[in-house]
């Protein structure tokens, strides 16, 4: 993984740990597509630079920064050398420098300010996302330069027709011309997006394609109905923005009626909160949950 991608991933983890209810190690591993051991190394890194990470009811959460490790005045400015290192890192170069730990410590500590954590975003990823939106607006094909695929273990260029972005612009759904099918691409694994002058040609093959709020794709959706506790409601709206409009308040709980394309996405959410959610329908979703529980 490139150096700027590692830094971006740490920021993503910090944002999740700063959420009121924190996050689960298994969820982090699944979203980052890494092992639980790798997540533990990330957590150890944060602890080593002064973050106090709590573990409660299966969830990790940052309570506060250990103030003895770094004073407020240390966070206000960067030295000229550190500023240059930031510039170098954002220019997508691999960096190994004695000042790197000092720089990272300051950046991590700044995560105590939630608004800053939410706005710091790797420059090259941001530029790629802008180009993808441009391609979708003007309906042209793009080349994803040196895309790093975990599934195939390859790094190669991909000629695609972008369809839509989802989950905070972390994922791209696109038609890959070579394989003739819709695929999911993680934006942080794209080294560079290159616009072409070729108009899209295969829209007839994916015209009815959609992405639900749990990140699942398909052409025909089904309404799933869940009854949520207050805790499940908070986690749902925090982790899956946009679900609010599908919720109604009952006397002591919340009712969710939402279109989904596959059971895997919403199923992971249900299985992650045992005792907090009741599946009201359809029967296919109930059976999916029962089968998954039976696998343990």
Automatic annotation (TrEMBL):
- Please indicate which superkingdom the organism of origin belongs to: Bacteria
Task: Specify the WYL domain's residue ranges.
Answer: 130-194
Q: Name one Pfam family in it.
A: WYL
What InterPro entries does the database record attribute to this sequence?
CBASS_pafABC_assoc_protein (IPR051534), PafC-like (IPR028349), WH-like_DNA-bd_sf (IPR036388), WH_DNA-bd_sf (IPR036390), WYL_dom (IPR026881)
Which protein are we looking at? WYL domain-containing protein
């Amino acid at each position: 993984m490139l150096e700027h991608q590692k830094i971006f991933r740490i920021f993503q983890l910090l944002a999740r740990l700063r959420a009121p209810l924190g996050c689960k190690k298994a969820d982090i591993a699944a979203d980052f597509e890494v092992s639980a051991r790798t997540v533990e190394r990330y957590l150890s890194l944060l602890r080593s630079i002064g973050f106090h990470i709590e573990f409660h009811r299966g969830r990790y959460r940052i309570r506060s920064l250990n103030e003895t490790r770094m004073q407020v005045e240390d966070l206000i400015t960067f030295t000229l050398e550190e500023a240059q290192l930031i510039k170098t890192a954002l220019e997508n170069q691999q960096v190994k420098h004695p000042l790197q730990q000092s720089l990272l410590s300051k950046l991590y500590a700044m995560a105590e300010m939630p608004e800053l954590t939410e706005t710091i975003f790797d420059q090259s990823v941001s530029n790629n996302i802008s180009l993808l939106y441009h391609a979708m607006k003007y309906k042209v094909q793009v080349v994803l330069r040196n895309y790093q695929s975990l599934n195939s273990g390859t790094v190669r260029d991909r000629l695609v027709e972008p369809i839509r972005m989802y989950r905070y612009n972390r994922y791209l759904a696109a038609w890959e011309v070579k394989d003739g099918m819709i695929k999911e691409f993680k934006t942080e694994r794209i080294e560079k997006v290159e616009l072409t002058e070729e108009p899209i040609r295969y829209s007839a093959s994916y015209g009815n394609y959609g992405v639900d709020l749990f990140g699942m794709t398909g052409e025909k959706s089904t309404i799933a109905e869940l009854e949520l506790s207050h805790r499940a409601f908070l986690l749902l709206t925090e982790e899956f923005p946009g679900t609010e409009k599908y919720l109604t308040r009952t006397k002591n709980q919340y009712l969710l009626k939402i279109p989904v394309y596959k059971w895997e996405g919403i199923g992971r959410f249900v299985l992650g909160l045992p005792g907090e959610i009741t599946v009201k329908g359809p029967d296919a979703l109930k059976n999916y949950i029962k089968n998954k529980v039976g696998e343990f």
